[in-house]
Amino acid sequence: MAKAEPTTVDESLFDGRTVDRHIAEGRTTREAYEAYLASLPDDTEEATESDVRLVICGRALDTHLANQGAEEEEN
Q: What is the spatial distance between Cα 22 and Cα 29, in angstroms, rounded to a whole number?
């Protein structure tokens, strides 16, 4: 009896920036994407904290988002 070859996954289909388009165009399914995410290792133990703050146009991100929310409420 022949061994089944392991299936390879085209990881480019599951890129977070394009997965919705691939699903909409029928290249993959939401179920396949969820299974792929579930198969990824949990590297939480490898993570480190950072004190880096994202700055947009001279303002910290939290300040930028707060101002953006206020602008939306005015409209």
A: 8
